[in-house]
Amino acid sequence: MLQIFYDSQEFFLLKELEKLGPRKGVITQSVKDVVQSLVDDDLVSKDKIGTSVYFWSLPSCAGNQLRNVHRKLESDLQSGKKRLAQLVDQCDTLKKGREASVFREEALAELKSIELKYTELKHEMEQYAENDPAAFEAMKKAIEVAHSAANRWTDNIFTLRQWCSNNFPEAREQLENMYKEVGITDDFDYVSSSSVPLCSMGD
Fold it and tell me: How many domains does the chain have?
């Protein structure tokens, strides 16, 4: 496609390029995409004149573009070399005091052994976590609080039932049916402390 522009050094509409593209081996359906990619790479210029969009490219423009690319690559190369030198210096600095020695190898071996032991102890602690006395004591206190709360609400329910019976004696049967529907049956009563099991943490 670039050769079409270079040979003619003229301005083209997209329709014209779609006719010329196949002569250079570019199928008509892909001419638009190829030309757009050349525009994106600044190898082909594009401008709208009136209602028409024209494309053009001159050999001198391509030369300038390549020279610009070359300058950028040269700049990137110099920056890369400078960064490499900095990293080499940093690496040399970090190596100081870390030279291979018998003492260093022994210290690293000891460190690895300590890390393995730490991992083993950590796993062992996780196994015993379920029987932690502090956690078990906290559970006992939580059960006591729940037991007290359950009985407090039971007392509230009994008080409410008594109030309903006193104020609506004619609706006693309907009230009893309503109590049963919400789970308040004849065996509804306070929770005794002996009925609250203290299970182990693992249960």
Answer: 4
